[in-house]
């Protein structure tokens, strides 16, 4: 630690050590002032140097750990977000999230019986299922009103949670059918440059009218 043969601490090595551990100039001066020519003062200075060095080593050690913790936070933030698990099958409009719905629903079939369009039926798992095939859902809300357990709840904006996907067998690119575009009640469907229908998912409410009106089986509905 820079001790001379005469037992006196030299200033330059002391300052180098303190620079390495991060001490400021005032602290260096205070330490050096304690280093007088007597043996007891030298021992005091050595003791002070030892404590000061340990202190700054501990401080830097904690800072190092903190940086590691910060690095772990960045790594965690960069991990891909887990995609939510979709329901096993489509549920009636206004349904709670799948897991919660299965707790609340008593499989009473009241919503199924209340649907005037006949597009709700009992799935093989016992829970109601929305099946749009020959009729679309107009969002009448009778299924929600019939639910006594609040597994189905009123929506601020009607949405079945389904969106149309247009298959490759769509004839519009060669015949200019445009049935899905012309009959969409929300005008959420349009034709792109290649002649294929595309859907504006933000406008679409998943009513299924495009599927019902398509005579070429070129539309399917998928859960979102």
Secondary structural class: mainly alpha
User: How much is the average pLDDT?
Assistant: 78
What's the shape?
Answer: elongated
Distance between the termini: 69 Å
Oligomer: single chain
User: Helix segment count?
Assistant: 9
Stretches with pLDDT under 50, minimum 5 residues: 1-39, 62-73
Task: Describe this structure as you would to a colleague.
By secondary structure, the chain is mainly alpha-helical. Among the domains are: 87-158, Alpha-Beta Plaits; 161-223, Alpha-Beta Plaits. 41% of the residues lie in helices and 10% in strands. The chain is built from 9 helices and 6 strands; from the N terminus they run H-H-H-H-H-E-E-H-E-H-H-E-E-H-E. It has helices at 11-21, 25-33, 39-78, 98-104, 110-114, 142-146, 172-175, 179-183, 209-213; strands at residues 120-122, 128-130, 162-166, 189-191, 197-199, 219-223. The strands form 3 sheets. The protein has a two-stranded antiparallel ribbon with strand order 1-2. The longest helix is centred in the first third of the chain and has 40 residues, at 39-78. The radius of gyration is 37 Å and the shape is elongated. It starts with 10 loop residues before the first helix and ends with a strand. Residues 1-39 and 62-73 have low confidence and may be disordered.
Secondary-structure topology with pairs:
Layout: H1 11-21, H2 25-33, H3 39-78, H4 98-104, H5 110-114, E1 120-122, E2 128-130, H6 142-146, E3 162-166, H7 172-175, H8 179-183, E4 189-191, E5 197-199, H9 209-213, E6 219-223
Antiparallel strand pairs: 1-2, 3-6, 4-5
Helix pairs in contact: 1-3
